Amino acid sequence: MGGAALSRLWDTHPKLAFPLHVFSLGVIGWVTIGVWAQGSSWVAVSILAFLFVFDVASLVIATIDAAQRGWSKSDGM
């Protein structure tokens, strides 16, 4: 749900979406570290690590796309 909201925000307000996306990366990262530090199951840690990697990849793709479009709203939507 949050990913869908961030992706829509990248289309309309990319300069606001960037810090929010970085914040969400930080939250997922801290939760992953906290779960790992508590010695939880590898399944839980693996799922959170996958979410972190997926969020990082989407941040990179969205940033590149927004930078190529000059950080402006797309005309197609």
Characteristics:
mainly alpha; 0% strand; 77 residues
Mean pLDDT: 75
Strand content: under 5%
**Major sheet characteristics:** none
Q: End-to-end distance, in Å?
A: 20 Å
What can you tell me about this protein's structure?
By secondary structure, the chain is mainly alpha-helical. The chain has a domain of 48 residues. The chain is 81% helix and 0% strand. It is built from three helices and no strands. Helix 1 runs antiparallel to helix 2 and helix 2 runs antiparallel to helix 3. The longest helix has 27 residues. The radius of gyration is 15 Å and the shape is elongated. The model has no long low-confidence stretch (mean pLDDT 75).
Summarize this, please?
The protein is 81% helix and 0% strand.
Draw up the topology in text.
Elements: H1 2-12, H2 14-37, H3 42-68
Helix pairs in contact: 1-2, 2-3
